[in-house]
Structure formats: structure tokens, C-alpha cells
Amino acid sequence: MSLFSKRCSVLLIGCGNMGSAIARALNGAMANLALTVFDSDEEKAKRLLGEQLEVRIVSDCAVLGAEQFDVCVVAVKPGDAVRALLSAQANLQASLIISIAAGTPLSSLERGVAPNSRLVRVMPNLAASVRKAISVGYADGAMSSEDREFVEVVFGAIGRFHWLISEDEIDLATAITGSGPGYVFSFAQHLQQAAEQIGISKEAADLFARQVIVGAAGLLDQDARSPLELKQAVASPGGTTAAGLTVLEQAEAMPWLLRQAVGAAAARARELAIEQN
Ligand SMILES: NC(=O)c1ccc[n+]([C@@H]2O[C@H](COP(=O)([O-])OP(=O)(O)OC[C@H]3O[C@@H](n4cnc5c(N)ncnc54)[C@H](OP(=O)(O)O)[C@@H]3O)[C@@H](O)[C@H]2O)c1
Fold first, then answer.
1. Which residues contact residue 261 at a Cβ distance below 8 angstroms, ignoring those fewer than 6 apart?
2. What's the whole-model pTM score?
3. Quick one: what percent of the chain has pLDDT higher than 90?
């Protein structure tokens, strides 16, 4: 039976920062949705989801009896994922199970799921809360094309989604998509500090740094030109931007730093995956 044509029942386990963002997006994206949220802290889940969301919230899967769900989204901390899946296993006998637990491989998640379920791993990022996330996903051959489409709809509702061809790529992508917002915040922080250093007030420096990034991000989002083309368009020869870029783009400056930062993040993602397996 199609996940799209009939009433689609979804069990969301864990309603924290990421789970609540996914719940809100799902609610907006799917007309046929019947959403149940399972979180150990029912009051917190209610508070995060707000009044207007049509959702059933439970703090114990026992109250669900033998009710079956088409789809389960696992949004608890990595260390809680298998235990949470085991506690809901009776309700997920033939479900599509989507885990967003960072660094938790499919082989670990399999310990918590029924034999007939289909598993997919997705790594969203912090921008899910403003529906500008980039999420990457990996699933093995057991997924149907409809399952894949469902994942694309869910994570398309919080931003953009991209399939990976091997599970190892999740650790590599995490160094860019997961950690990337942190790099950009660091850039904003240091741009603000540099602005203050040349005599701009703290408030104005904060405003300038934020809005420069928001504006450039808007162009990257809406303008088909590549980052290189956009950069060339604002850097006329002999001008102020070219002068700044000459410093920033020295071989040992930003290009080297970014390669080092991404390499360190990818190595750490691999270490975390090994620790959790
Ligand atoms: N935040 C991000 O930017 C981000 C990005 C990519 C991936 N992720 C992944 O998303 C997952 C969730 O992250 P988060 O930041 O949203 O975490 P969070 O805010 O801590 O939310 C997790 C929620 O799950 C609840 N919970 C824990 N164990 C449970 C269980 N056995 N059954 C039911 N509910 C349970 C927690 O309740 P208590 O607080 O009472 O324990 C909490 O409300 C993590 O695995 C993380 O790796 C997060």
C-alpha cells in the first residue's frame, strides 16, 4: 500500500531540537499524515511542538498496544537510539525506519529493529529549524523507490536532501554538511571582530557580519552562478574585495585552513562511528 495515497502513520521517537523541527515540517508537507510523537518528556515535547500541531504525544510505547506504524523517525541522541527502537519494536514490525542519530551505523541500528523493517540513515544539520538544512541519506538495497521518495519528501520539507552511494560517505559528508554551519559561524564571529578592530561599533559589526552572510547565502541559493563566478563578479581588478581576497586566498591561508578543518572533522566523524559500533 502506498505511503502517499493512504493515511500514513508516523512514529517520531525523540522530540528535542531536531525531532520537533522534523515534526513541524512533516505536518506541513504531508496532507495524509497521522503523527505520533514518543518522547520520555511529554511536557517538553508539547512545549516544543506548540498547540497548533495536530499530533498525539506519548511518553511510553506501552500505551500504543499493538498499533503498527508505516514509518518511524528516530531522533534521540546516538547512545539512546537502539534502546528507543527496542522499546517501540512491537509497533514497527514492517516499518520504514529513518534514523538521524549521528555516527550510528546501520549495523548498530539493526540490533533494535524487526527483521521485516527497512532502515535508512539520514544526517540533517542544524539549519533544519529554519528549513534550510542540507540532509544526506544512505540506505541499502532493501528500500523501495517509494521509501526513497518518502525520505526525500520528509527531508525536503526541512531544506535540501541528497542520497549518498555508500554509508562511509556519511562520515565524509558530515565534515561539510554537519560541521559546516559551525565553520560559517566562526567566519561571522571573526568578521565581526575584524570590523570592530578597524573602528566599527560592536552593534554595527554584529549587524554587518550577519547580513553579509545572509545576503551572500541568498545569492548562493537563488543565483545559478558558481561560487567562483559570484566571487569574480564582486571582485573587480584593483578593487577593495580583490585586495581582501588576495590575503584570504593565499595558499597557506583559507584554502589550507579549510582543507585542514574538513580533514579533522572527517577523521573525528570516523572515530565517533567506530566508538559507537
Ligand atoms: N541537533 C543537530 O543539529 C543534529 C544534526 C544532525 C543529527 N542530529 C541527531 O539528531 C538526534 C537528536 O538530536 P537533538 O539535538 O534533537 O537531541 P535532543 O534535543 O536531546 O532530543 C532528543 C529527545 O529524545 C528524548 N529521548 C531520549 N531517549 C529516549 C527514548 N528512549 N525514548 C523516547 N525519547 C527519548 C530526549 O529526552 P531527554 O532529554 O529526557 O533525554 C529528548 O527530548 C541525535 O542523534 C543527533 O545526533 C542532530
1. 179, 183
2. 0.90
3. 84
